[in-house]
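fyi for ur records
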Amino acid sequence: FHFRLCHQMEDRNWFLEKVDFYRIAWSDSYKEYPFISVQFYCYFSLFYLLVIFAGPKIMAGRQPFGMKNIVIFYNLAMSVVNGWVIFASIEAAQGIGLGFFFSAVKEDPSNPWFARYYYVFYIHCVLKTIECADTIIMVLRKKNKQLSFLHCYHHFSMIWLSCFFLRCPFESHVYSEELANSIVHFVMYGYYGFAAAGIRFPYKKIITQLQLVQFTFYIVQSLVNLLGHADIPCMFVPIADVSYTSFMMGLFLSFYFASYGNAKAKRVKAKGEYETSEENVASRTTRRRKKDN
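which gave:
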């Protein structure tokens, strides 16, 4: 009995048919592309953890790398590729008849738009792995304060989320989240690319606000899918999405209020300290003149 049960559990189709809660529209197209096997993600995850924990210790006795030109090129290149993903995914989604909300399509190998859509989605998910270069650059530049739990957890978790989403891409829930994520990263990497080149735009705060709007959209869409019983075959995705995104949103809200929530109070305090220092200087100057007289 135990052998028969284990043998059946190894059959993915049997498992998904028997457990209706995990009835997911899986796609086997990922087998045609490199660097997305479970083994690859396991090895890459170990490498990323090594960078996080061992990297700062290795760099402790070394001078930080400048890497200005590399940082500029990396950020602008990531912005350009995310911009391409935005337009290419919209075009391909229209080609397969996939809408932004409450729809799913069955993969049709005879339709070339499905191969096009999956290729664009594959590039998007590979970008989630490439984005771990953010952490490597921080370690090499000895920006250890930026290696927060939020930063490391976000990148590490996205490695495995991309591995999962590549296996069920043909539904509106996954598609719209991929599109929203690409828009945010297009803006974010563009900002950091220009900032590294010395060109600063006054919307750094807006980037975090965009991310919060993105998370809010994820949660609302997932809840509508669950409570409204939307006709999508992958109900496990919105359930997992609500849990993961709620936690991520809490982390980003904490970062937002810590970074920008008390900005006005800090400016007032700094202004008060400046005025006090000016008064002290004036007072010392007056006493010195009286003493000289």
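The chain has eleven helices and no strands. thats all i got for now
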